[in-house]
TrEMBL record:
SUPFAM superfamilies in the cross-refs: CoA-transferase family III (CaiB/BaiF)
Protein name, per record: Formyl-CoA transferase
Keywords: Transferase
Pfam families: CoA_transf_3
Species name: Subtercola lobariae
Keyword hit for Nucleotide-binding: no
């Protein structure tokens, strides 16, 4: 199957999470992603735990289907390689602090000179203007400054960060959307030269109705624990065994839910007649629901409630989630092997195109694994490559070099 981004080449100067997540999505869709890494250890995520032996699982989780070239980003020889990569690329993506790209010699003017059709995509902390534009921004800092942490937790005295770097991940998604939009625009005669997003812009866009509540009503949302902030019954409820999630989203579901729990009289109770009433009297409603749920174990309730068309499910840890029948049916976990022969299960990308789900074409690359191959494609002969390696301007992964010899 031909993938929609086949024939598109992406030069990836990003590191850590937001940028690499973006380019993993582009690679899933068929783009050739050339990950350019520095001689000083490469992508910083390669040094981040958790580790399996010497392998960073943090890095491996978001660098599938890419090629790695390792070089001195600041030497004339290294810059010449980058120039050649840029000249033949469709997209350049970076997530440096503002101004770093220019320090690499890649000013706007130079990029246009090298490749007038190039789309330059950027992800930074706080945006391209404003008093904080030059500040470094990391996921947890932005979760705090965007208001996201203020609505996450047990109550207003106990607020938490989301359990994954959600702002980094969604910023990568937004960047991928911007890049694909720019590619479409270019093909439609509406060329776009730059797209950018920031962690702050993405995080505030995640606020949706909670942010709109603050803007329109002047109300400051507070954490609701595991309850939906405005809809009830919608959240986590105890049963005779473990807790489950239930989401009663409309009046039809509400009546059916009361019937399943054998609390039909509650349907006409003035406290719970409408969604607004149920939200206003959440605590009393929760007590009634959990009293009824105490009659059966969680698995029976999940089966019954789901069969009635009401969203309901168990609360899994990740080990349980990966072992579920639905995850297996979707083929979400795919298996590959590292260069050293060790097994590496990976979560595939989340998209399905024309009935074909994303797939793991190649495992995450070793640092500099494709340096030699990419340089040859750029016109360097073996002697020139050897000279660059011997003088410390590029790095070729030792295992790859041994195979090539």
């Amino acid at each position: 199957m031909t993938k929609p981004l086949e024939g598109i080449t992406v030069v990836d100067l990003s590191r850590a999470l937001a940028g690499p997540y973006c380019t993993a999505l582009l690679a899933d869709l068929g783009a050739t992603v050339i990950k350019v890494e520095s001689l000083n250890g490469g992508d910083t995520a390669r040094q981040w735990p958790p580790f399996e032996d010497e392998h960073s699982l943090y890095f491996e989780a978001v660098n599938r289907n890419k090629r790695s070239i390792c070089l001195n980003l600041y030497s004339p020889e290294g810059r010449e390689v980058i120039d050649k990569l840029v000249a033949g690329a469709d997209v350049l993506i970076e997530n440096f602090k503002l101004g770093t790209l220019a320090k690499l010699g890649l000013t706007d003017e130079r990029l246009t000179e090298l490749n007038p059709r190039l789309i330059v995509a950027s992800v930074n902390g706080f945006g391209i203007t404003g008093p904080l534009k030059n500040d470094a921004g990391l996921d947890q800092v932005i979760q705090g400054m965007s208001g996201l942490m203020s609505i996450t937790g047990a109550d207003s005295e106990h607020v938490y960060r989301v359990g994954i770097p959600i702002v980094d991940i969604t910023s990568g998604m937004i960047a991928a959307l911007g890049i694909t939009a720019a590619l479409v625009g270019r093909s439609n005669g509406h060329p776009v030269s730059t797209v950018s997003t920031s962690l702050l812009e993405t995080a505030l866009n995640l606020s949706v109705f909670q942010g709109q509540r603050a803007l329109s009503l002047g109300e400051t949302p507070v954490p609701q624990g595991n309850n939906h902030p405005t809809i009830s019954p919608y959240g986590t409820f105890t049963t005779a065994t473990e807790a489950i999630n239930i989401a009663v989203g409309n009046q039809v579901q509400w009546k059916a839910f009361c019937g399943l729990l054998q609390i039909e009289s509650v349907v006409d109770d003035p406290r719970f007649v409408t969604g607004a009433h149920r939200s206003a009297n959440r605590d009393e409603l929760t007590a009634l629901v959990e009293t009824a749920l105490a009659a059966k174990p969680a698995d029976e309730w999940v089966e019954m409630i789901s069969a009635a068309g009401i969203p309901c499910g168990a609360i899994y840890n990740y080990t349980q989630a990966f072992a579920s029948e639905q995850v297996a049916a979707l083929g979400l976990v795919q298996h590959t092997t590292r260069r050293d022969g060790s097994a590496l299960p990976l979560v595939r990308g989340p998209l399905t195109v024309d009935g074909q789900p994303s797939e793991i074409i190649s495992r995450p690359p070793l640092l500099g694994e494709h340096t030699g191959d990419v340089l040859r494609e750029l016109g360097y002969d073996d002697d020139a490559i050897a000279a660059l390696e011997q003088t410390g301007h590029v790095k070729i992964d030792a295992l790859t070099a041994e195979v090539q010899r």
